[in-house]
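Check out one such.
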Amino acid sequence: MALRGRFAADFPGLAASQLFAIASDIESYPRFIPWCRSARVLAADGAVRRVDNHFGAGPVDMRFVTRAEADEPRALSITSDDGPFRSFRLDWRFADGHVEADYSIALRSPLLQGLAVFAMPEVERRIVSQFRQRVEALHGA
């Protein structure tokens, strides 16, 4: 069964396009996405990018490829069924002063799925906190 959730944050004074630019700068993910060791665009075709990802913490080390599809400046959808994922979907949405994201994660390993259930509240908190720090670093907001 997939793990589902949502996180959101407000950024008064910032345009949707500014918030979209941060989330769509995939190769900068190691700077603000928890446990992201690297994210590299392998191919781009218009609004769609294929991305090589490396995430890890402690003994958990995962590499996988995602598909990122942009609807600038309103949305960014990231999906995968590669590596540890039976299915992965992260749908970012942007409005002036607001970011929210819904996710759905189903991992191949029951052990990793159990760890994900336990860890996701902290992951959500860190994503929002580090996204906020990234906004402040880039826009001083």
About this structure: Helices lie at 16-24, 29-32, 110-139. The two ends are 39 Å apart (CA to CA).
